[in-house]
Design goal:
Helices cover 95% and strands 0% of the residues. It is built from 1 helix and no strands. The protein is mainly α and 39 residues long. The termini are far apart.
Amino acid sequence: MIFILIIINLLWASTFIFGKILLDVFSVSFLISFRFLIA
C-alpha cells in the first residue's frame, strides 16, 4: 500500500516537473518568436 502511494507520488511529481519544463520552453519560444515579429 505504501509502495503504491510512493509510486503515485513520484509519477505526480515527475508530471508536474515535466509540465513546468514544458511551460518554460513554451514561454521562451513564444518570447523569441514575439521578438522576431516586432523586429
